[in-house]
Every structure is written in C-alpha cells, then in structure tokens.
C-alpha cells in the first residue's frame, strides 16, 4: 500500500515519541541499578533526537501529529515498565522486537520514496541505522534470554504493527 509523505512523517514522529515513552517506563522501574540502564538511557537520547527532528519536519511540512499521542504516551510507558518489571532481558526483548519492526517499516518507506524526497529519505535512513544498532545492542544484552522470548517478541511486534497502522491515519 502506498503511504503518503504526510503519513510517513506523522507515523514516524509518533513512533519516536512512543520509543521515548517505553524507555522512560523501563528507566522508571530499573533506575540506574542494572547493567543495561546506561544503554537504555543512551538509546532514549537518540530517540529524543530523532523525535525532535521529526517534530521540526511536522511543522515545516504542515503535518498534524497523530491524535493518539496521549494513548501512545501511556501505552509506551506501561509497556516499558511492564517489561522492566519482568527483568532486564525482557526490557531488551522489547527493544529487539520494536526495532525489528521499525527496521522493516523504515525500509519499506525508503523503497517507496526512492529518490523522490531526499530530505525525508536521508532522515529515515539515518534513523533506521540507529534503530538497527538498538536492536543489535538489545540482542547482545540478552534479549533472547527473556522469559517466553518468542511469545513476548512476537506480541510486541504485533502491537507495534497495529500502532503503525493506526497512527498513519488518526
């Protein structure tokens, strides 16, 4: 399905916002007491920089943000807190799942854009590379050792797909 550039900017900004909220939930539970807290804080800083750039692009292009931002704020924080309560590996499984889905999502957008919008393509490519690093960090930090990893991983990916689909439109 062809996605408009406006929908791309809207959904990508929403996704970066959601990622920040997930990491906030994880850090609220774990604080700086775990070996991965520093990694999570670093990833959260990168997501904040991504969101700020998408915020600026929303304004520049006159794109409205998703009306679901309050829902994504609460849901993201809850997901982050819940996975952190399960344990550090589950927190990393959450990151691995989301970043796997975002890699797929951003890659599809890049294929659709081709050379038509260099500004947006450059941002998406840069952010996709960061998201891939986050996924690889999560896997190296024990994501696959999380309790019920396949179930957790696939449930979070499905939730991410749903959030992407509705944020394009609403």
Structure description:
The protein is mostly helical and 170 residues long. The chain has a single domain (5-169), classed as Ferritin, CATH 1.20.1260. Helices cover 82% and strands 0% of the residues. It has helices spanning 5-30, 37-61, 69-86, 88-113, 118-140, 149-169. Helix 1 packs across helix 6 and helix 4 packs across helix 6 (149-169). The chain is globular. The protein starts with a helix and ends with a helix.
- If you average the pLDDT, what whole number results? 91
Count of discrete domains? 1
- The helix/strand series, from N terminus to C terminus, equals HHHHHH
CATH class: Mainly Alpha
Q: Ranges with pLDDT <50 over ≥5 residues?
A: none
Computed over alpha carbons, the radius of gyration is 15 Å
Share of β-strand residues: under 5%
Number of strand segments? 0
Structural class: mainly alpha
CATH architectural designation = Up-down Bundle
Counting copies of identical and different chains, the oligomeric state is single chain
Instruction: Assign a percent range to the helix content.
Output: over 70%
Q: What global shape is seen?
A: globular
Q: How can the largest sheet be summarized?
A: none
Helix tally equals 6
The N- to C-terminal Cα distance equals 17 Å
In the CATH scheme, what's the topology name? Ferritin
List the helices and strands and how they pair.
Layout (H helix, E strand, L loop, with lengths): L4 H26 L6 H25 L7 H18 L1 H26 L4 H23 L8 H21 L1
Helix pairs in contact: 1-2, 1-3, 1-4, 1-6, 2-5, 3-4, 4-5, 4-6
């Amino acid at each position: 399905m062809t996605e408009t550039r406006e929908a791309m900017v809207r959904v990508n900004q929403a996704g970066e916002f959601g990622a920040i909220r997930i990491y906030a939930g994880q850090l609220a539970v774990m604080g700086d007491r775990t070996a991965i807290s520093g990694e999570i804080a670093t990833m959260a800083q990168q997501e904040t920089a991504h969101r700020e750039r998408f915020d600026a692009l929303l304004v520049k292009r006159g794109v409205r943000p998703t009306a679901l931002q309050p829902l994504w704020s609460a849901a993201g924080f809850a997901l982050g807190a819940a996975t952190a309560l399960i344990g550090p590996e589950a927190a990393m499984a959450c990151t691995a799942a989301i970043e796997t889905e975002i890699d797929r999502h951003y890659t599809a957008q890049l294929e659709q854009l081709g050379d038509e919008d260099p500004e947006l393509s450059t941002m998406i490519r840069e952010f996709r590379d960061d998201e891939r690093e986050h996924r690889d960090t999560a896997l190296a930090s024990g994501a696959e050792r999380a309790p019920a990893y396949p179930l957790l991983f696939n449930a979070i990916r499905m939730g991410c797909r749903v959030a992407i689909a509705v944020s394009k439109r609403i």
